[in-house]
């Protein structure tokens, strides 16, 4: 479900069910273009924050092994600054250093920067959580792991009970 129309359908359905977003200030996503466009249509007042973890994965997939650590440090310097202004300065430094080697990657980072820096509009103590979807994803993973192990426990319990009851007869 990557298309704008599909995401709009989902968000419109949520809206109709009561999630009108009257107090919605920020939506954090992994960078799916269809979802980003749908958010602008259904929840236009909300800011959109692109996930830095996903962006870092995308950036680092495009670099040579010998440049990996330096590119990573340079990109992290952008979001680890103390303000939006300093982040833009860090981007300019990143651009100067990597434009020649990775022009497409640098252009994409520059294009995505406004949505990567939305977290600066919120109180500082929230920045770390707001700049990534990992907190949300971790919740889903925890639930999936719990469900798997709970299923294993049920199977184990049922086998023990069958063994025990069959030994009694």
Detail the topology: elements first, then pairings.
Blueprint: H1 4-16, E1 26-29, H2 33-42, E2 47-50, H3 52-61, H4 68-79, H5 84-98, H6 103-116, H7 127-130, H8 134-168
Parallel strand pairs: 1-2
Helix pairs in contact: 1-2, 3-4, 4-5, 5-6
Distance between the termini: 54 Å
Strand arrangement within the widest β-sheet reads 1-2
Structural class: mainly alpha
Main sheet specs: 2 strands, parallel
Shape label:
extended
How do the helices and strands follow one another from N- to C-terminus?
Answer: HEHEHHHHHH
Chain-averaged pLDDT: 86
Q: What are the segments in which pLDDT stays under 50 over at least 5 consecutive residues?
A: 136-146
Q: How many structural units, i.e. domains?
A: 3
* Helix-residue proportion: 55-70%
State which percent range the strand residues make up. Answer: under 5%
Specify the number of helices. 8
- Indicate the radius of gyration in whole angstroms: 22 Å
Number of strands: 2
Q: What report would you give on this structure?
A:
A two-stranded parallel sheet has the order 1-2. It is built from 8 helices and 2 strands; from the N terminus they run H-E-H-E-H-H-H-H-H-H. By secondary structure, it is mainly alpha-helical. It has 3 domains: 1-50, no CATH class; 52-112; 133-169. Strand 1 (26-29), helix 2 (33-42) and strand 2 (47-50) form a beta-alpha-beta unit. The longest helix has 35 residues, at 134-168.
């Amino acid at each position: 479900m990557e298309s704008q129309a599909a995401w709009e359908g989902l968000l419109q359905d949520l809206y109709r069910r009561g999630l009108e977003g009257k107090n919605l200030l920020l939506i954090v996503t992994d960078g799916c273009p269809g979802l980003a466009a749908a958010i602008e249509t259904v929840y236009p007042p909300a800011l959109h924050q692109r996930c830095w973890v996903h962006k870092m994965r995308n950036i680092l997939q495009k670099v040579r092994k010998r440049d990996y650590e330096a590119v990573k440090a340079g990109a992290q310097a952008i979001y680890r600054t103390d303000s939006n202004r300093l982040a833009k300065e860090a981007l300019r430094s990143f651009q100067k250093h990597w434009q020649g080697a990775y022009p497409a990657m640098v252009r994409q980072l520059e294009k995505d920067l406004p949505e990567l820096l939305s977290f600066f509009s919120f109180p500082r103590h929230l920045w770390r959580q707001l700049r990534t979807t990992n907190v949300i994803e971790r919740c889903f993973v925890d639930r999936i792991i719990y469900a798997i192990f709970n299923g294993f426990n049920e199977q184990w319990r049922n086998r023990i009970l069958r063994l025990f009851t069959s030994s009694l007869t």
